[in-house]
Each structure stands twice: as structure tokens, then as C-alpha cells.
User: Fold this.
Amino acid sequence: MVSDDVLRTHLQELRRGTVVVASLIALRRPDYGYALLQRLATHGFAVDANTLYPLLRRLEEQGLLTSEWNTEESRPRKFYRTSEEGETVLRRLLDDLTAVQTAMTGLIEGVDR
Assistant:
């Protein structure tokens, strides 16, 4: 029987890349970190804040997200949005995800290529 730790490790590896894709999709509409955490969780992407915030900073450094501070509210918040470069990368990632899904379906169904 497979241990919970082994399964948890493989699930974490599987979800790691999908969080990037999900974040780029979700941030087509500007949002701040905490709201993004909630939105992702609502759609089945349970992400820890200690994972998401460094990811947002990394995607911003890579030019895939833009950000700006909203200081009009009582508490300033940094809003993120998928950049044009982020959209280009997202399209490529979604194409690859579709290809992986097709390949997996073929393996599951025993279809030869």
C-alpha cells in the first residue's frame, strides 16, 4: 500500500505547474493576492499563501504579470494582472496541457499513436 506521504508528494508535483497556469488565467482580471488565493481555492486549487506570494513575485520578475498598488482603500493592496507576455506564455502552456491530456487519454484508453 502506498503511504500518504508518497501520494502527497506526487500530488504536489502534479499541481505545482497547474497553479502557474491557473494564476495566469485568473489574473486576466486584476486581483490582489488574498483574493486570488480564495478564487483559486473556489476552483479546486488549494494553494498556501507561502507558495502563492513567491510565485506571484517570480512571475512578475519574469514579465508574465504586471502589478500596481491601489492606495485608495484603507489598506494598500498590490493588484496583479497577466501581461501580454504572460498571455503568450499562457497560450503555449494551455496548448501543451491539451497535448498532455490527449496523450494521457490515449494511454488510459490504450490507443496507439
